[in-house]
Every structure is written in structure tokens, then in C-alpha cells.
Design a protein that fits this description.
heterodimer; A: five-stranded antiparallel β-sheet; 0% helix; globular; B: 114 residues; mainly beta; six-stranded mixed β-sheet
């Protein structure tokens, strides 16, 4: 049973436009969410995170939105650049459980076309 | 070192053999995590170490899997009697303290069981 779902395996966007990557979760105990970016043959690198007490977090070109009632979060990248081409993983955790496990989605491959 | 180091980067083995995967965390990082990513899937939590505390082994898929860590240094993940379904990228991550926030991942070990 997948608790974190990224329903779009891939996404293509023109350089300079907005990229929107979506993520849905089913576990209502999740209260902390992260996005990781992964290039081929490299480990994932942390991009941005959001706590469930917020509905938006912004860091430069990257913004994460959280809709708790819909159990949905999205990552916006604007403007998109060719170097943003990578696989993006959504991850979630239940900090209240005292556990440090992250539950990941399957990832969305973003291609930014010059 | 500058980042999390994993070895080997690639390992091909025959079904039924044992394998050992190694992880060198970032110096000073007290927490160490193992995840794996099977083809087309998200990252799955395997095990977590924090200092001398008992590890959280709740993600290990079977008793063929074990891991050790000496103090706050190197960790080894051992898979006994490997099966074809063990084929995956095994990723190690570390963090300065136990956290469900950002982790620093290594590049992983690609394990192929023939």
C-alpha cells in the first residue's frame, strides 16, 4: 500500500516556464514533507521541506505548497532551467512517532527543454 | 570526507551468495540510515543507527538482511543468500543528529543478483 504517491512518472516543461510536480499521501499522521532531487548515478539531494503547520514554503525558485485537507502537496519551480532536469522524490514522515523513517514516492522525472 | 561514501559502487553476484555493502558517513554525523530503491520504485527505509542506541531495524525485509555500525563511523549492510528480488540500489545517508529533516545521501551501491 503506497502511502506517498507521485502519479506522474514524467513531466516535460519548456525552459523559463513553471514546473509543477504533485504528490499525494494517505497517512494522516504524516506531518513533515520533503522534496529530494536526484541526478543519474548520484544520491538524492535535499531540495525543500514543509511542516504541516504551514501551507507554503519558498526558497528561491522553489516553492512547496501543502493542502492538508486534500492530503496533497506540490512543488513549483519557476522559472524552470535545463539544470533542473532530474528525478524529484516527494517524502513524508511522522515526527510524532519518534521515528526517523522517511516514506518516499516513486519519483517524477522532470525534463526541462531548452 | 566531503560527503557520504559508499562502496562498491556496483556489485554483481550470483543468487545464494552473501554480499557486504559499506558506508562511510560524513564526519561528525551521528545518525546513519540505509535505504534501497528497486527499479521503478521509491526509496524504502531499511535501518537507522544513532550513536550507541539500539538501531531501528523495522524496515529490514527479512532475516537475511543485517547491518552493523561501529560507534559513529562506518556501517556495513550484509545480505545473506541473495535473491533476485534483492537487486536494487542501496543508499546510505547520514545526518548530524537524528532527524526527519534533510539527509545527506551517498551515490549508492547498485546490486545485481543474477
Amino acid at each position: 500500500d503506497q502511502q506517498v504517491k507521485q502519479n506522474s512518472p514524467s513531466l516535460s516543461v519548456q525552459e523559463g516556464r513553471i514546473s509543477i510536480l504533485n504528490c499525494d499521501y494517505t497517512n494522516s499522521m504524516f506531518d513533515y514533507f520533503l522534496w529530494y532531487k536526484k541526478y543519474p548515478a548520484e544520491g538524492p539531494t535535499f531540495l525543500i521541506s514543509i511542516s504541516s503547520i504551514k501551507d507554503k514554503n519558498e526558497d528561491g525558485r522553489f516553492t512547496v505548497f501543502l493542502n492538508k485537507s486534500a492530503k496533497h502537496l506540490s512543488l513549483h519551480i519557476v522559472p524552470s532551467q535545463p539544470g533542473d532536469s532530474a528525478v524529484y522524490f516527494c517524502a513524508a514522515s511522522n515526527s510524532g512517532a519518534g521515528s526517523y523513517q522517511l516514506t518516499f514516492g516513486k519519483g517524477t522525472k522532470l525534463s526541462v527543454i531548452p | 570526507g566531503a560527503g557520504v561514501s559508499q562502496s562498491p559502487s556496483n556489485k554483481v553476484t550470483e543468487k545464494g551468495k552473501d554480499v557486504e555493502l559499506r558506508c562511510d558517513p560524513i564526519s561528525g554525523h551521528t545518525a546513519l540510515y540505509w535505504y534501497r530503491q528497486r527499479l521503478g520504485q521509491g526509496l524504502e527505509f531499511l535501518i537507522y543507527f544513532q550513536g550507541n542506541s539500539a538501531p531501528d531495524k523495522s524496515g529490514l525485509p527479512s532475516d537475511r538482511f543485517s547491518a552493523e555500525r561501529t560507534g559513529e563511523s562506518v556501517s556495513t549492510l550484509t545480505i545473506q543468500r541473495t535473491q533476485q528480488e534483492d537487486s536494487a540500489v542501496y543508499l546510505c545517508a547520514s545526518s548530524f543528529r537524528p532527524t526527519n529533516e534533510k539527509l545527506f545521501f551517498g551515490s549508492g551501491t547498485q546490486l545485481s543478483v543474477l
